[in-house]
């Protein structure tokens, strides 16, 4: 039998469309977080968009709605994106590195992150966005495979590369809206991130 990571890789590789990938994630039982979550939270927005945003993990509101970024930080995110003409109704797709709410919003473990990662990688490969926005430490570390802090990574032109991906994808790290709710004085930096995007 496959390990959960191998099963995730195999399922992700077999998905030829974003719709098929959504179904593959919903049917995947290899991540233990699924047992305590209400819903699978995969992606929301325009699947043909040129911009893909990847966050961390669903919280309580997202778990209830089955959609990413719908709680307080999601509402702030939508307002931030609207300032630069991006909306899930038309030109951005929003997803996460983890598809099930960790109990009590604890940080996902490295094992949970590694198990879900093949799906986020496949989403990038299928969508081929012109820009990949990573918000928060977990997303930045998992997708960029580097350990620098978000305050160091943010606002810079980075590249997302993977074996099998024809060309690198432009990537940028943005401060997480949940962090901005706790540290509103950092909104100045977030505005610079939005201008760079
Ligand atoms: N924070 C995230 O990173 N993702 C969500 O979907 C909600 C809050």
Explain how this protein is built:
Helices cover 43% and strands 13% of the residues. Helix 1 packs parallel to helix 5. The termini are far apart. It is built from 9 helices and 6 strands, in the order ααββααβαβααββαα. It is globular and about 50 Å long. A hairpin with an 8-residue loop joins strand 5 and strand 6. A 6-stranded mixed sheet has the order 1-3-2-4-6-5, sandwiched between helices. The protein is of the alpha/beta class. The chain binds uracil. The site of uracil (URA) has 13 residues, from helix 4.
Largest sheet: 6 strands, mixed
Coarse shape: globular
Q: What's the rounded overall pLDDT mean?
A: 97
State the order of secondary-structure elements, H for helix, E for strand: HHEEHHEHEHHEEHH
Percentage of residues in DSSP E strands? 5-15%
Structural class: alpha/beta
Helix content: 40-55%
Distance from N terminus to C terminus (CA atoms, Å) equals 43 Å
**Integer-rounded radius of gyration:** 16 Å
Task: Give the spatial strand order of the biggest sheet.
Answer: 1-3-2-4-6-5
Number of helices: 9
The total beta strand count reads 6
Low-confidence stretches: none
Name the ligand types: uracil
Outline:
It is built from nine helices and six strands; from the N terminus they run ααββααβαβααββαα. The chain is of the alpha/beta class. Strands 1-3-2-4-6-5 form a six-stranded mixed beta sheet, with helices on both faces.
List the helices and strands and how they pair.
Layout: H1 4-14, H2 18-26, E1 43-45, E2 51-55, H3 60-65, H4 72-83, E3 93-96, H5 110-127, E4 131-135, H6 137-144, H7 150-153, E5 158-160, E6 169-174, H8 177-182, H9 187-196
Parallel strand pairs: 2-3, 2-4, 4-6
Antiparallel strand pairs: 1-3, 5-6
This protein binds uracil.
């Amino acid at each position: 039998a496959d390990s959960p990571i191998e099963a995730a890789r195999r399922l992700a590789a077999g998905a030829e469309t974003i719709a098929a990938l959504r179904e593959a994630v919903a049917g995947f039982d290899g991540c233990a977080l699924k047992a305590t979550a209400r819903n699978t939270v995969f992606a929301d927005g325009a699947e043909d968009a040129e911009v893909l945003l990847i966050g961390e993990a669903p919280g309580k509101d997202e778990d209830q709605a089955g959609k990413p970024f719908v709680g307080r930080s999601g509402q702030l995110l939508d307002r931030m994106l609207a300032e630069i003409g991006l909306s899930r109704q038309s030109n951005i797709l929003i997803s996460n590195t983890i598809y099930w709410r960790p109990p009590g919003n604890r940080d996902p473990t490295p094992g949970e992150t590694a198990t879900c990662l093949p799906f986020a990688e496949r989403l990038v490969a299928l969508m081929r966005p012109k820009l990949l926005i990573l918000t928060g430490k977990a997303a930045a570390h998992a997708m960029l495979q580097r350990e620098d802090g978000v305050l160091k990574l943010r606002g810079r032109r980075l590249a997302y590369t993977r074996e099998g991906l024809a060309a690198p994808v432009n990537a940028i790290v943005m401060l997480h809206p949940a962090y901005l709710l706790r540290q509103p004085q950092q909104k100045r930096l977030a505005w610079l991130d939005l201008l760079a995007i």
